[in-house]
Amino acid sequence: NRIGDAGMRAFAGAIGNYQGSLAKLETLWLSTNNIGDDGMKAFSSAIASGALANLVTLNLAANQIGDEGMNSLSSAIASGALPSLQSADLDDNPGSDAPVQQEPYAQYHY
Questions:
Q1: Which of 38, 79, 80, 89 is the most exposed place for a label (fewest CB within 10 A)?
Q2: What's this model's pTM, rounded to 2 decimal places?
Q3: Is 50 exceeded by the pLDDT of residue 78?
Q4: What tens digit of pLDDT does each residue of 10-61 get?
Q5: Nearest partner of 33 among 59, 53, 66, 51, judged by Cα
């Protein structure tokens, strides 16, 4: 399953356009899907709307997310987009996950 940036943009569009459609989603595993910065920026914009407010676990490991995508995700989290998030796996991506690990994200596990 390799959705890539195009698949991630489509997913982001779906969750952004259908508020509440995934309101109860608690776990999202998108590892090893060849998602890059463009896909991550689209996803970050979608979650900034609060579409995944109950998400507890997010796995984006082993993709192609660079610094630009990591910064986009960090900004979305900083805006309060994922208030229930407890665990995010960002390992094995070319970008630094340092922005996402900064305070106030210390309670998350990376």
A1: 80
A2: 0.86
A3: yes
A4: 999 988 776 677 888 999 999 999 999 999 999 999 999 888 999 999 999 9
A5: 59
Residue 45 CA: distances (Å) to CA of 1, 25, 92, 107: 23, 18, 23, 23
Radius of gyration of the chain (CA): 12
Q: Which one, of 2, 59, 1, lies nearest residue 25 by Cα? A: 59
pLDDT value for 93: 93
User: How far is C-alpha 96 from the geometric centre of its chain's CA atoms?
Assistant: 14
Residue recorded with tokens 């208030």: 83
DSSP string, the chain: ---HHHHHHHHHHHHHHSTTTTTT--EEE--SS---HHHHHHHHHHHTTTTTTT--EEE--SS---HHHHHHHHHHHHTTS-TT--EEE--S-SS--HHHHSTT-TTSB-
Closest to 78 measured CA to CA, from 99, 98, 62, 55: 99
